[in-house]
Specification:
Layout: E1 2-5, H1 9-31, E2 34-38, H2 45-51, E3 62-66, E4 68-70, H3 81-88, E5 99-101, H4 109-121, E6 127-130, E7 153-157, H5 160-168, E8 181-185, H6 187-191, E9 195-200, H7 206-214, E10 232-236
Parallel strand pairs: 1-10, 2-3, 2-6, 3-5, 6-9, 9-10
Antiparallel strand pairs: 4-8, 7-8
């Protein structure tokens, strides 16, 4: 894992996007196509804004997979991650993607996991754009996370800390509105990505960053598993890096 400390949240977004874009160009030049994973949430705002403006990327040869989505969440809801990615990324690209495999949480959750699993097993993921939750989660794999399953997508239960983060970021008007279940890409599937670009701004993430970077690798801190991935770049701002001793 390489740690990249940035002076502002905006610089974090630009540098994370530039890192991911370079890996995308390399994949497109080498194989003629590329596959990415996209996360959502407040941590990705600046990165996605910069990524869509990245030059020399032939987006019509790029396939994108969606990282996670709430079970039972209609796309019309402001908190829908499908809606987020459509509005903040897919529809703003200069040209259409080859494919965007979004998660439909309104369907039978296990059937949707099976459908997406079959699709992603056919592809090698070149870049995963992800974040880290306040409780140290990766995607919606809350602690203690399943580090062993090889299933690409899982139906998971969301813990209270995760649900309170969603409320705190302004996606819901009350805690009771936050769903308790989600469909999430598994930890093992994320780790299969050739490169991982992890964007983590804000002081509220400082403890999670400290535990993930300087603590033991443990399912109780799901993001700590990134220590074992050789091509991970962790982009931090001064606030999210404030808990690090080095």
């Amino acid at each position: 894992m390489e740690i990249v400390k940035c002076s502002t949240k905006q610089e974090l977004g630009r540098r994370a996007a530039a890192c991911g874009a370079e890996h995308l160009r390399q994949a497109l030049n080498a194989a003629g196509e590329a596959t990415i994973i996209l996360a959502t949430g407040a941590s990705q705002f600046e990165m996605l804004e910069a990524l869509i403006q990245s030059p020399d990327i032939d987006w019509k040869r790029v396939t994108a997979f969606h990282l996670d989505e709430y079970v039972g969440m209609p796309v019309s809801h402001p908190a829908s991650f499908r809606r987020y990615l459509r509005e903040r990324f897919v529809e703003r690209l200069p040209e259409p993607l080859a494919a965007f495999h979004e998660i439909n949480g309104e369907k039978d959750p296990q059937a949707e996991c099976d459908r997406l699993g079959k699709l992603i097993r056919r592809r090698a993921v070149d870049v995963a754009f992800i974040g880290i939750g306040e409780n140290g989660h990766l995607a919606f794999n809350d602690p203690p996370a399943d580090f062993e399953t090889e299933e690409p997508y899982l139906v998971v239960n969301l813990d209270e800390a995760c649900r309170r983060q969603q409320l705190g970021e302004g996606w819901f008007s009350s805690f009771d509105e936050v769903p308790s279940k989600a469909i999430s890409m598994s930890v093992r599937q994320i780790l299969k990505s050739k490169a991982i670009v992890c964007s983590v701004p804000d002081r509220r993430k400082a403890k999670a960053v400290h535990n993930a970077v300087e603590g033991a690798v443990t399912p109780d801190v799901p993001a700590s598993i990134l220590q074992q991935h050789r091509q991970t770049w962790l982009f931090l701002d001064p606030e999210s890096a404030s808990g690090l001793s080095r």
